[in-house]
Specification:
Pfam families: CarboxypepD_reg, Peptidase_S8. The protein is of the alpha+beta class and 1187 residues long. It is 17% helix and 34% strand. It folds into seven domains: 136 residues, Lrp/AsnC effector binding domain/regulation of amino acid metabolism (RAM) domain (Alpha-Beta Plaits); 345 residues, 3-Layer(aba) Sandwich (Rossmann fold), CATH 3.40.50.200; 101 residues, Immunoglobulins (Immunoglobulin-like); 82 residues, Immunoglobulins (Immunoglobulin-like), CATH 2.60.40; 84 residues, Immunoglobulin-like, CATH 2.60.40; 77 residues, Immunoglobulins (Immunoglobulin-like); 97 residues, Immunoglobulins (Immunoglobulin-like), CATH 2.60.40.10.
Length: 1187
Amino acid sequence: MSDQSPFSYVTAATVLLVACLLVAAVAPGAVAGGFIADDSETDDTDLADTVTADSAAAEPASTDPAAVDSRSAPGSDAVAPGLRSANGTVEVVVRFGSDARLGADGGGADGSGGSATLSANDLKTNAANAQADFETFAERKPGVAVERSFWLANAMLVTVDTESVAVERLLEVRGVERVHENFEVELDSTATDGDGGSRAVGPAGPPSAPASGAVSSVSTSSTGTDATYGVDMVRAPEVWEVFGTRGEGATVAVIDTGVDPNPPDLNVSGWAEYDAEGNLTSDNLSVIDTGVDPNHPDLNVSGWAEYDAEGNLTSDNLSDATDGNGHGTHVAGTVAGGNASGTAIGVAPNASLHGIKVFDDDGTNATFARVTAGMEHATQDPDVDVLQMSLGADGYVPSYIEPVRNARSAGKIVVVSSGNSGQGTSSSPGNVYDSLAVGAVDDSRSVADFSGGEMINTSNAWKNDAPADWPNEYAVPDISAPGVSVGSSLPGDKYGYKSGTSMAAPHVSGVAALVLSASTRKISDDELYDTLRDTANHPANATDPDDRYGTGIVDGYAAVSSVAPLYRASNFTAPELAERGEPLNATVDVTNDGEVAGDNRTVEFRLVDPGNASNVSVVAAENVSLGSGNTKTLSLNGTVPSAFGTGETTVTVASPEDAASAPIRIADAVGTINGSVTDAETDAPLAGIDVVVEDGTEVVGATVTGTEGTYAVDVPATELTVAASNATYAPANQTVALTGSGDTATANFSLALRNGTLTGTVGASDGLDHPSNATVTVRNETGEVVAAIDAAGDGTYATELRPGTYDATADAPDFENRRTADVAVSPNATASEDFALTPRPASLSGTVTNGTDGGAISGATVTIGGDRTATTDANGTYALDALDRGEREITVSADGYARESRTLTLAANDTRDLNVSLSPRGVFIITNLSGDTEIEQGSSGSFGLAVQNDGRVTDDASVDISLNRSGSVSPDPVSIDGVAVGDSESKSFSVSLGSSAPTGTYAVTAATPDSEKTHTFVAVGGSGGSRSTDGGGGGGDGGGDGGGGDDGGGGGGGGGGGQPSPPADDTDDEPENATDEPENVTDEPENVTDEPENVTDEPENVTDEPTNETNEPVGDGPADGGDENNSGESGDDDAGEATDGGSEGDGGADGGGSADGAPGFGPAVGAVAVLAAALLVGRRRGRGGGE
């Protein structure tokens, strides 16, 4: 017998019920919203951080994604969780607390230009001191072996036999701060081969199907250079042209998959490769990537070395260098590729490239140790200025803070991709504050969807690992650059397209190289960092960095302009002729248009040898210091080299960024020709006359006469031809001879004015054809004819005339002439004068006769052009004069004759004869039209007509019949054949009306070309009685809707008043009115069906009623409404049916109803049911216990 009371069972059941309800309520949210943990956020797994090269849309890494979570990063625990339970021999990275940074800020960049600087040797010394105790420990402790020591990150790569030494034991060694795995760095690289989309997708590994030949995605820059859109967007071609730099003297270390050293677009000067333990396996080419293909024609590889996993040198043979992946070669091409394909692919094509391989050819086996070793190699190289790293791991990886900050301390700028997981994300080391993170934009300057970016709260993201000098919050990326479908080099003399922030970062590294190259002073890493950020162009003109663009899109021209002076040369003057071995002097204005001052910058005065264009001599030079915006006028004095050839050449003044040039002639000896020029008619001196001196066909000197008409010009001493002329005066020439240096000759000229030209067109005033054989006669001021010109077929004419004033007259046969006075003709100028001659009028005459007997027709009318008429006389003759020329329509008509028409073309002054014969015809006059005066709808009426022939011949009559309202006529037309002259003939016709024809008055009209008559009749209703076409009323409207609802509906309302009855015989219109009534009837259900809305709104009151099997509530009244009444006269009283006004409700989903029409209560009903069951079970158990 149980000691549990029934109440306890009830209580237990109630508790169980509440728990069930809570689970039911919470479970959907847990499933949908996140009680189930994301598999990428695992906590206690082995640390296997994965860093990816940030090409877009990579496949997930094979290592545990939790490795990049800050919760499992090395800085979050002294020993990484996975190492605590490790068995056997494991490889670990031991980090030391006393690193190589200076002070609290560690020398990291704070964007203010004030970071401390340490050399690589300083960092090495500090690291060696910090690691000394552990080195001693490892030497003495079996099971612990140091594989590699690092100084950029104060760390050691150590192998531990956990059977002999627990990993935690390492923490007991003095100086050890923490221990973590040698987590891998992986490459996610995808070739997009011309894809213009914003996201490249595909598996990791070698690129697919690279294209050979030129890059097809080309933009022509403002300088006219064919370049990839990315090179053009960062304004590199403008830097090349204006500042004359292409990255010379700057070095970029590309830490990536390696570089193909042979593309013609790349000049690689250094190389290094590291294994997974960070041991140097190859060096001399410093591009940090998957390797180098030494056979690629685009690269020039100068050395190679390779080490095994333990750091032993295995090869230093250049032929061993390869890049089996292509990612690094693509990145390197964007940094410093050339234009061997015809398209410029690199931002800084003359910068030096150091390739550092930290990935295998398949894009794997890159570890923290390997990446750090690559960074160390670049940092310790004094030539390297920029570390280019297109790699990263999603999330915040503190392990990268120290190497990035120490590289900055050593004076390097670290350019890193921001990651490819889109907005709200970032990757390490790009999100390390001291790096320069780069996001990706497309060719329309829009941020790519995949581009990583976020506003980072320092304490939340980095916890205690964040250095003290970092701000509380900062934006990633720092800056943006082109990164969608970027064309660049690939191994094997190929080109291809890739997308990702991996492709954006090298654009920024290339711009950094241009800035370093253009500056005349040392640019620190802090200044370079700030310059790139501060000069970026934000499309939205934002003043603060954001998580999409950072500070904006990198602007190479703005960045270089902010650090380099820009010397412009203007107002350059130099002699046009110089003698070998004699002085050569020039002046020029030099202005500094740059934003910074220039100090001791050289301006050169250069002369090209006329006999050898490749031989350029600097005949003078001056060092110029100018503040921003300042100008200085220089006088440059040199000597023409005696060994130079003779002839025309170029003299140039050049600053480092600009040049101004002018032509010059070098001669063995120089003499002078002088003289004066006067007007041949007035003997007045002429200013502004061009004097040209030629040696054969070569112009060797030129000048212009002054205000007194005189000139002097230095020329080579030889026999020469001198010519004088200008636009007003005709040329004249002379021959002179100069025999030696300093000789002088004189050539005076008396010049006549050049002729002018008179031209124009002779046309007609009516706008028709030009007059034929037109002549233009020109007379001078004395009336003398000086020219008579026959106009061409198109009316044009032209003639040369001496300058002066003339009268011109145009005439042509059959046209009135026209004269124009005072036509002015100027020297070497064209005067235009057009003439519009009036055509003389035409005339027309002739005779009109009877076409049957040839007799003259008197009184006939002749009309021409629709407005000029003439009437024939008794002889049938007519005459019309003063007619305009052109095509004319002529009509001739007379009573009793058929009309005739003709078309004539009249010429100017034309006289034409036109005789016309007219054919006699019948003239039919309607003498009578009669018939019925009343026609019923749906019947016909009879009519008759009579016509009389008043014409000249027997003819057939045709009478057209028309009604002014609906109906039909038969026949139409009415034809009467052979009506003799003077006779009358009659004929009948009928008019039929339709049954629905309108009643009222109708008009029937009979008409011939000569006459018409009208008869009226009335249309009346049919034999059933007359009625208006508007008809009578129909039946009454239906009654009101029947009452619905659970309690039964009420009766329908009474019908409306009846409409007048339609005529009995009007069956045609009957359906129209008849069908109108059902329209009113069928409208009523609209009101009926609205009622369930109100009924179903009251389920709480209705559901108290029991339901029957038909799902209708059991009510007091009938299920249907009142009695049905379908009488048309009294109206319908439609019954209120259950389907319209009854209790049938909406579905359970809307009203919570059950299948039988009762409303449901969802979970509440279920709860009640469970509670009832629990109570029942409790009571039964209580009873059972009692038994």
